[in-house]
Amino acid sequence: MGLHLGDIAPDFNAQTSSGEINFHEYLGTGWGILFSHPADFTPVCTTELGKTALLQEEFAKRNVKVIAISVDPLGKHAEWIKDINETQHCQVNFPIIADENRNVATLYDMIHPNASATATVRSLFVIGPDKAIKLMITYPASTGRNFTEVLRVVDSLQLTAKYSVATPANWKHGEDVIVVPAVSTEDAIKKFPKGVQVVKPYLRYTPQPDLK
Ligand code: BEZ
Known about the structure:
CATH topology of the largest domain: Glutaredoxin
CATH class of the largest domain: Alpha Beta
Number of helices: 7
Helix content: 25-40%
CATH architecture of the largest domain: 3-Layer(aba) Sandwich
Structural class: alpha+beta
Order of helices and strands: EEHEHHEHEHEEHEEHEE
Number of domains: 2
Largest sheet: 5 strands, mixed
Radius of gyration: 19 Å
CATH superfamily of the largest domain: Glutaredoxin
Bound molecules: benzoic acid
């Protein structure tokens, strides 16, 4: 059976470029991102892992731990990390799982047989502090993901978790957010002291609540 939003992210033990880990212990009490790529020493993957490494500070600010996975062995990961650091001008300091036997790839349905019988597609899971899956995206091997977009989604998810707000289409940090339907306008006015703009009874905006 496939995974769904809200499911508890399956736990596992795995060998990684940073030693053996237990996934849930690695995540601890914060947020997590698990993302797969098809193979080591491939061009798009090299840029993706480099971009993720360059954004490490941004992930850390949001209390997000990142972990990558491919079905290549540990020795290959170690050699490839040197190339990523050299070519992308970064330091990869998050673990890369060596999933040679495809245990984790199978658990997370990362192998799509009609795309490739053996390699993982570009799956990405955002996992909340409650270990529930908050976001799943799947890209084909030929399209590198936009990690600035991944950060934007994390910002949205964290605002929802803390303030019961949603974010509109193309929302960017600093722009007005939407009061979720479950909150009445009367309660929203009490909850959001910066003000509530009622465009329609079901479409209500308020300034981003965590900004001064
Ligand atoms: C890549 O990671 O560069 C890649 C992998 C498979 C197909 C195309 C590109």
